[in-house]
Amino acid sequence: MILQKLLRITGALLMVLSLNFVAEAQRYNQGRQRWEYLGQSNVDGRADHDRIRVNRPGAFRAIQLQVQGSAIEFNRVVVHFENGADTEVAVRERIRAGGKTRAIDLPGDQRRIESVEVWYENGNWGRRKPNLRVYGLR
Fold it and tell me: d(Cα 121, Cα 93) in Å, to the nearest integer?
């Protein structure tokens, strides 16, 4: 009888400790997977090309494009790095207002971003012009 109570208490204690461990691991992972704002561009409709300067120090392993206001159809996206290298990333799709791209992995180990250059289709946006925001993942 006493042994059964002791086993139940020990089992309950182990379950509480394991749930705490899982919650702490998720909290730690969420902190590491935090997207950092890198810059933005207000698409005015006069040009089909914008260059977004990045003034955040440090290296990033992925970027994400988020669209507000109206949809944007991307033709080409090029990431320029501080070391002079460039890489074109595949984003040939239409992103709706409020939408975002998947996490776009950046190649190499020197991923200090200088700017992100985007080409897009001129749309008939009317009064709600798109706003493009770039985020980075360390």
Answer: 10
Residue 20, amino acid: N
- Are the beta carbons of 25 and 97 closer than 8 angstroms? no
Residue-level pLDDT at 28 = 47
Which amino acid makes up residue 53?
R
Q: Output the DSSP codes for 31-79.
A: HHT-EEEEEEEE--SS-SEEEEE----S--SEEEEEEESS-EEEEEEEE
Q: How far apart are alpha carbons 129 and 40 in whole angstroms?
A: 13
pLDDT of res. 7:
72
Round the CA-based radius of gyration of the chain to a whole number and report it: 22
Alpha-carbon distance of 22 to 132, in angstroms, equals 36
Q: Give the global pTM.
A: 0.73
